[in-house]
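look at this fold:
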Amino acid sequence: MDKNTIAGIVLIFLILIGFSYFNKPSEEEIAAAKQHRDSIQQVEVARRLQQEETKVVNEAQLATLATTDSVASEEIVSERKEKFGVFADASLGEEKFYVLENNLMKVTISNKGGRIYSVELKGYQTHDSLPLILFEGDKNIFGMNFFAQNRSISTGDFYFVPSVDQEAIVVNGPQVKKGKEGNEKFNKETGGESKSLSFRLYAADNSYLEYQYTIKHNSFLVGFDINFSGLDNIVTANSNYLNFIWSIDVPRQERISQYGEDRYTNINYKYFEDEVDKLSVSKSESEQLRTRTQWVSFKQLFFSSTLIADTFFPEVSIAQEMTSEDLKYLGNFKADFALPYEGKANESHKMKFYFGPNHYNTLKQYGLSMESLVDLGYAIVRPVNKYLIIPVFNLLRKSIDNFGIIILLLTIFIKLIIFPFTYKSYISQAKMKALKPEMDEINEKFGKDKPMEKQQATMALYKKAGVNPMGGCLPMLFQFPILIAMFFFFPTSIELRQESFLWAHDLSTYDSILNLPFKIPFYGQHVSLFCLLMTITTIISTHLSSQTQNTSAMPGMKTMMYMMPVMFLFILNSYSAGLSYYYFLANVITIGQMYIFRQMVDDDKIRAQIQLNKKKPAKPKSGFQKKLEEMAKQRGVK
């Protein structure tokens, strides 16, 4: 250690000594500090004494309260026995939740009322990426209403005893192939677990009301049995029916659209061995079904909650209260089912719930006409969707994941089917155009004063030239059912739900490339690009088509032809992007066909053939033409 280091250490030591000397407290400060410590000790002693006094008072108060509560408890028990009779003990308890779960859904059941509290569908999300819950919450009503010992009993007020203490029951099974979700045939072939969970409302040791729930692997069905055991001397037997009430608040799953979820949400039902019917959409309504009913469904656009009887419900009262301004709920659905009751010692009612998607093939497999929950359009176009569009769509879906490509191939397929009719329509229009000079002569000769003569001369010209004036209309009539079928197929197809393509994030609803700061009447507050493209291509297709048509006889027809695309721009702006995309593709293909037809068809050759036909001997009048002329003569037209 060198001299500098030693000097530094000594200097630091001297500084510390000096600092301690000059900063030591004075006698007055020492006395003040002592007095402060004594004060703290006195406060601490006083606080401990106060705590001991408070403890003694609290113990006395608790003793008094215990005596009071004992008296109050006896009064409460007495009141509950008076109100609920043998079910009084079940009126007190703590609510707990139990879960039945498989690979498709999670069903939460509350011991209070033994009721289904909520249902979550796995593999699906709401429009804002939240778990998809069909219904949940304390506002939902689920349970039996009956009289017991002249007391009104509602099971939702009581605590049921579960058959197991396990709060989560998971049903396992083999891995499910894509597209086989909920397929009952696949389940039978591959197997899988099936588990049950029961909840009992006890009146006595051997007397109870039981709700039994059964769930299978890879199934959207939940078995639901209501069992009465030993209640024959308790439940009043002066009625042939007991009431089971089910009511839910219907949550929104999709984004708000005037042609979306609100348009398809309502109660549907099926009469036993009869047809399916429904309440009006977007309208509060109720109905008393006094005819045997097989099932009642709380239906939304893409999902349904349905209660199905193994046989039938003798009577059902249904009601829907719709809300238009609520951003969270679409409305409230309620059904009151009459269940037969014979007053026996043991009775059972077997039912099942369907909690799942409105998928056509999934619903059809049950053989209960539940596939009608998927709106396929009017009776005239429904077969087109059932037997043509859906099978082809499902076939393409098996090997292709991109729904934009699927719709493209579907459009090409449909265009190939109707190609011969389209070609025939084009030829007919070309022939009609070739007759324009003769048609102008007829119009000039007869004018507007002689409509019958003009019509007869026109028909004679068509006949002589070998032209069928309906030749261009019949192919269009053939295409019309397909056009309308697509109008219903795309907005209700759950396969398109939340499937994106290009700028469209969800092909089941409208695409938006621009949100407007204001709302345009009948149009909306957004701009759909697919709808714009559809409108533009429709106008182009209309223009090309008008060049092959003779519209001189109907001056207003041409204006109407151009007005229609503009009208559809307003109508389809808020419709499914998949629908607008399909119409756009169909227009593009039609435009391409017209250019090909123009290259294939020689207008001069057609006119030459017509002139040749006019020189041939006139064919005898048909019976229909003779009848028209006879009717004209009877009306005084010469």
In short: The two ends are 144 Å apart (CA to CA). Residues 59-87 form one domain. The first helix runs from residue 3 to 22.
